[in-house]
């Protein structure tokens, strides 16, 4: 008759704990729990959203498919965001007919009077969307501002740039790449 040693008991206990973990992870309760998801990134479909513009109109990302899109998350208190707004505006003025440019303000973390003041001071005319509940920032898992998503005609994310300010050359290069893709 064989006697169990302390090492064998530890191995047996570890086996039991491992089997219990496997059983629990396959149970319906675990399947219904909140799953860990990855942040939207290159090659994935851009999460759809509907937000209100600063003019009070609803705008939905999916309705804009067919044209490449640049979606820029920003806030008025963010120095790099403020610095890149004129660059985005120039790109919009020069090439706005070729693509969609959306500035998504992280309004849940911002002061709306300051948002409107910044837009007026800098003469921003491209669409600015207000994420007052923070749902779009959360869906895109934006952790740093500014964050810019470059989205192709089919709604796939082609590039994500975290941080800024973006340069004019960099914006033109990325837009040219989006426009060069076949529809």
Biggest sheet statistics: 7 strands, mixed
Strand order of the largest sheet: 2-1-5-4-3-6-7
Please give the count of helices.
6
CATH-defined superfamily: Glutaredoxin
**H and E string:** HHEEEHEHEHEEH
Please render the helix and strand layout as text:
Blueprint: H1 6-25, H2 28-32, E1 50-53, E2 58-60, E3 69-74, H3 79-95, E4 100-105, H4 112-122, E5 128-130, H5 135-139, E6 147-151, E7 157-162, H6 168-180
Parallel strand pairs: 3-4, 4-5
Antiparallel strand pairs: 1-2, 1-5, 3-6, 6-7
Describe the structure in your own words:
This protein has 183 residues and is an alpha/beta fold. The chain has a single domain (50-180), classed as Glutaredoxin (3-Layer(aba) Sandwich). Helix content is 39%, strand content 18%. The protein contains 6 helices and 7 strands; from the N terminus they run ααβββαβαβαββα. The protein has helices spanning 6-25, 28-32, 79-95, 112-122, 135-139, 168-180, and strands at 50-53, 58-60, 69-74, 100-105, 128-130, 147-151, 157-162. It has a 7-stranded mixed β-sheet, with helices on one face. The longest helix has 20 residues, at 6-25. It is elongated, with a radius of gyration of 23 Å. The model is unreliable at 27-37 (pLDDT under 50).
């Amino acid at each position: 008759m064989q006697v169990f040693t302390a090492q064998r008991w530890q191995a047996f206990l570890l086996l039991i704990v491992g089997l219990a973990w496997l059983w629990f992870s396959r149970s319906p309760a675990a399947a219904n729990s909140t799953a860990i998801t990855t942040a939207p990134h290159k090659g994935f479909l851009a999460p759809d959203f509907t937000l209100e513009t600063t003019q009070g109109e609803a705008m939905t990302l999916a309705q804009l498919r067919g044209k490449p899109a640049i979606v820029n998350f920003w806030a008025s208190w963010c120095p790099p965001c403020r610095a890149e707004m004129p660059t985005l505006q120039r790109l919009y003025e020069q090439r706005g007919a070729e693509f969609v440019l959306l500035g998504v303000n992280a309004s849940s973390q911002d002061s709306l009077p300051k948002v409107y003041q910044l837009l007026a001071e800098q003469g921003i005319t491209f669409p600015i969307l207000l994420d007052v509940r923070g749902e779009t920032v959360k869906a895109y898992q934006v952790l740093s501002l500014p964050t810019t998503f470059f989205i192709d005609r089919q709604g796939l994310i082609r590039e994500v740039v975290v941080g800024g300010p973006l340069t004019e050359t960099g914006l033109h290069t990325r837009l040219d790449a989006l426009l060069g893709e076949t529809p």
